Amino acid sequence: MLDINPGLILWTIITFVIVLAILRFTAWKPLLAALTAREEKIRSSLEQAEQAQKDAERLLEDNRRQLAMAEEQAQRVMREGREMGERLKTEIVEKANASAQHLVDQAKDEIRREKEAALVQLRTEVADLAIGAASKVLDANLDTAAQRRIADAAIDEMTRRPDA
User: Fold this and answer.
1) How far apart are CA 152 and CA 123, in angstroms?
2) How far apart are CA 81 and CA 100, in angstroms?
3) Choice between 70 and 1, residue whose per-residue pLDDT is larger
């Protein structure tokens, strides 16, 4: 069945060693160089990937920080806008109140002037009526200026009394 042939084994070993020596001088260095280059390329790729990941994390943190700053600024702008709106509202209300008070004061002054004018007119008419009535009753010959003085004095006396 199986015969062990020592000559064949010897020649197989010699052939293997020769092929191994030939491969060592011709193919071993290029294979090692290719493996070393591949290993270096993989290491370089891993370092680049780690650097890219660090850069991405740094950019992500920068973006988060900028987003937080933008949000804070937006909140500040909105708060300032609300405060300005409240100030404008207060100013407008104060101006409207002042304007309304001014109009009320003007109306009161106008009413007072009209009242005084009406009182002066009423006194004049009452004085004229009193003079006319007194001259008819007394049928005296006083001049008009003297009658006017007497009537004005009587009216002033009546207006000074507390029950008048």
Assistant:
1) 8
2) 28
3) 70
Is residue 79 classed exposed, middle or buried when 0-12, 13-18 and 19+ CB atoms within 10 A define those classes? exposed
In angstroms, the CA 131 to CA 135 distance is: 6
Region 111-128: mean pLDDT is 85
> Is the distance from CB of 147 to CB of 135 less than 8 angstroms?
yes
CA dist., res. 155 & res. 132, Å (int): 15
The C-alpha atoms of residue 91 and residue 104 are separated, in whole angstroms, by 20
- The conformation of residue 161, written as its DSSP 8-state character, comes to S
Quick one: tokens of 160?
Answer: 């000074």
Task: Measure CA 22 to chain center.
Answer: 84
Query: Is this model's pTM higher than 0.85 or not?
Result: no
Query: CA-CA distance, 145 to 151, in Å (whole number)?
Result: 10
